[in-house]
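Hmm, how's this folded?
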Amino acid sequence: MPLPAKTIQESPSRREFFGSAFRGAFLFVLGMSTTALTRRAQTQKTVWQIDPEKCTQCGKCATTCVLEESAVKCVQLHKMCGYCKLCTGYFEPEPIGLTTAAENQICPTGAIKRKALEDPYYEYTIDEPLCIGCGKCVKGCVLFGNGSFHLQIRHDRCLNCNECSISKNCPSDAIHRVPVSEPYILKDREQKA
């Protein structure tokens, strides 16, 4: 029985060699470009934040966050505060009496602290661990006051979920991604102050 003839491998032609080399070099450059663009995109990280000008204080920040205690907290802009004795972000619209008694306060957890400065001025501060992000104080301050209270996502608490559950449930589309270099959105009046 005859043995099969050995197949002789032909060496690639010069044209094939340079064509393969060109394709290889092109794929290498393409891979390097893709890697560079990916790294650049990764350095431009973003975080979730609430636009205080769009927020309607609906209360969903307190209930739809994936965390047991919402990452949304009320913040006080002292530069904008009037330090009013009758603060509409602190008291119910028609309090039983003008005292700091719990039944007169608008905050359900007592997160707003009031300190007398000199008659008739008071300083209001937020005890963030007590704040649940319900926005009741913000609504009172925006409706009747000067808007020195507003809600913001605190990044030391936020998990920065790929798809924020609060953002999905926000009726005013007030929550969106911002660059990590500017993680807080200022109110218009705060920017001018």
